[in-house]
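Known limitations

Structure tokens in this collection are predictions and should be treated as such. Users comparing against experimental data should check residue numbering before alignment. To illustrate the layout, the record for Pyridoxamine 5'-phosphate oxidase family protein is reproduced below. The input appears on top and the generated tokens appear beneath it.
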Amino acid sequence: MRDKINPIRETDDEARGLARELLTAATTAALGVIEPETGAPFVSRIAFGLGPEGKPMTLVSDLAVHARALHTDPRASLLIGEPGAKGDPLTHPRLTLRASARFFAREDGRRDALRAAWLGHHPKAKLYVDFADFHFVLFDIAGGLLNGGFAKAYALDSNDLRVT
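Generated tokens:
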């Protein structure tokens, strides 16, 4: 019987750098949550950015299905990275994160810093960032998987993904 080959490479500085580049450049992400009513996976496209301490963040409305889902169960998955304009979409790098969502209340003293960071990424959000139903969410990263292109997979931990 043939031994299975582990497709995950040893994580190196090049992989860490690519993952951090993806995080820094991203303005959107696919967010996976568990839908409370059905227990089924639910994926939506969200606006994305990094907070003042380099943590992934988003701004969500209470009206969104994913906001209700994260209030019920904070576990989430984020897919970051877009296919390029040319070539096979599966050869372009992408990063999948396992994370836990943390909502920030309006009266939280860190809101001003989160707001400033968010508007730095998404200046058009100034139109709605202060609406009462919108809340900042930071994602605490548990780990992730970087697919750097064909046969370039790396398992990453939260320290590998720290952007400062």
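For this record: Helices lie at 13-25, 65-72, 111-121. The first strand starts at residue 8 and ends at 9. Please report discrepancies through the issue tracker.
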